[in-house]
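User: Quick sanity check before I run a bigger batch. Here is a single chain. Can you write out its predicted 3D structure?
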Amino acid sequence: MHRPVRRLAQLYAGLVLYGASMALQVRAGLGLDPWDVFHQGVADRTGLSFGTVVMLTGAVVMLGWVPLRQRPGVGTISNVLVIGIAVDAALALLPRAASTPIAVAMLIAGVGFSGVACSAYIGAGLGPGPRDGVMTGLVRRTGGSVRVVRTAIELTVLAVGVALGGTVGVGTVVYALSMGPLVHVLLPRLTVASAHAN
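Assistant: Done. Predicted structure follows.
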């Protein structure tokens, strides 16, 4: 497969899978990652669909790129649109977990798919997601470490999401502990080599 075609295919496959992984975690009902706690809280308070909130949040966060002088790529714009559409489609198909074992299985699958999906769309190299772009922009402008800046952003988003009624639980902890190791292992395998690589 030609490299540009593979990059686009991998980007969109990763974004669709990421939306599906979010839906699995929502339907598991055991707790969401910080941004999805926020998305769920806003959705519950406004009556908008979860995916619509994901898209609107992504668009608003992208406005924060302007003072940070970040430039979006095709992957950035696609991230805003595709994930929201995919998560709403998956939520329409997936029922709520009918028992604790099913909920646990859905949570594990959701977190695992999220790690694969995140590695796939980042590895495509077509631009970071809106939320990651704000983080990297703040790191560059403030000189802070990625860990400190990311933690500060996610704790703020989580606190707002909890105040709005988003679901926090064991799934929130599982996601936080799992994503770093998953992406660490998978990203090198899913990174598309640049055209200048030998």
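The two ends are 17 Å apart (CA to CA).

User: Great, the batch can go ahead then.
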